[in-house]
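Much of what follows relies on a compact textual record of a protein's fold. Think of the row as the fold of the chain written in a discrete alphabet. An example makes this concrete, so a full record is given next.


***
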Amino acid sequence: MSKEIIDIMLPAFAECLVLVGIHSYLGIHVIKRKVIFVDLALAQIAALGTTVAFLFGINPSSHAAWWFSLGFTLLGAAIFSLSRIRSEKIPQEAVIGLVYALAAAVAILVVDRAPHGAEHIKEILTGSILWVKWKTILSAALAYAWVGIFHYIFRDKFILISNNPEKAYKKGINVRLWDFLFYASFGIVITHSVSTAGVLLVFVFLVVPAIATIMVTDKLKWQLLLGWGMGTIVSVLGLYISYAADFPSGPTVVATYGVVLLLHTLIFYVVKHNNRLAALRNVGLGFAAVVGVVFFFRFMGHTFGAHAEAHASDEAAVLPAASSLASPAESKDAEIHSLLSDENHNLPDTPDELETLYNHSNDDFRKIDILKKWAKIAPARGYREMIRFLKTAQLPFVRDQVLTELKKKTGTDFGYDPSKTAEENARALRKMDVWWASKFNKNK
């Protein structure tokens, strides 16, 4: 593994290890309490708090946004603790699911009133773990350590309520109070996690190791050790794949967790089956069925895609005659409109066309895609525009992605902090200008 990959991925890997450590433990409680989606609901509530702060113009990476997020999460913890009823007719999971749906809906309504709301929603779901800072990792590790110590001190009550709530009631334990303390401590973890890892990655860090390890053993010690081991391996594999294939890190780790859990389940099924030959046959039939479904939809995609392409070609046949009647300015506007409205988001292959598309696009993430291609076919102009983009982009998580591309090229981040303003990053931006001049503009 090259030094470049280590430099870029080491902080993200360290953050994954921190997340695995606490979430593997909490996930076991969640599975035993049969409140699988409480993590997703609390994560969405925490994200709603950040979104509300964002509406007021507060930077999602700031301490103020964190307090918004924590306040909303503690409110969610109170709701979940009150929703537990000893003789419940309505499962608590139903309440949790409803709270999640409401939090997600309100978040969408809020971001609809905020500038660049779509980008913020994407950030909430996927996070920005690739550019997590060591200071943030240390802060999260300390917070998780305090939560871990709290749970260790009162482990008897937490474990009893998770394993046998009826026995806890009979012993006179105030289950609702301890439920609130459980969800509140859980909320502190979630508030830290969502800001860097996003809702999706936080959910799989909680649920997948717990599911995998509970299949294997009932002993908490071994569940934790196996969960931590699995999380470490998946984190390394997922982050490497994301770097090698240029995929977003968070979703790649999520997908890797899914594949590993599937393989783990199939192996466990075969090993535990009374007739392993029959089990292997069933796995083979299942694999064949999946391949058949994939090819079926691939065939449908090609069939309908070819039909749509033929229809588009028929419509395009009449365009030359119409364009010949248009003025040069109108033709240029039509060309720009064609580039912007390309449903497949295909990018042009010349620097001039890329520049035209870049200058007329209002979507920051579309601009980032353009910059990536621009840097490949015309590095001097492409990287020059990347540096200019960092000087003007308003959203920290948008700046993160551009910085990722620069760091892949240079092996350094120049001391640039995406959570800070251009003025605060002035020194780092000057270093970028110097690098560009030395690399592409040596004669000037």
Q: What stands out?
A: The chain has a mean pLDDT of 78. The two ends are 37 Å apart (CA to CA). Residues 8 and 43 are 26 Å apart (CA to CA).
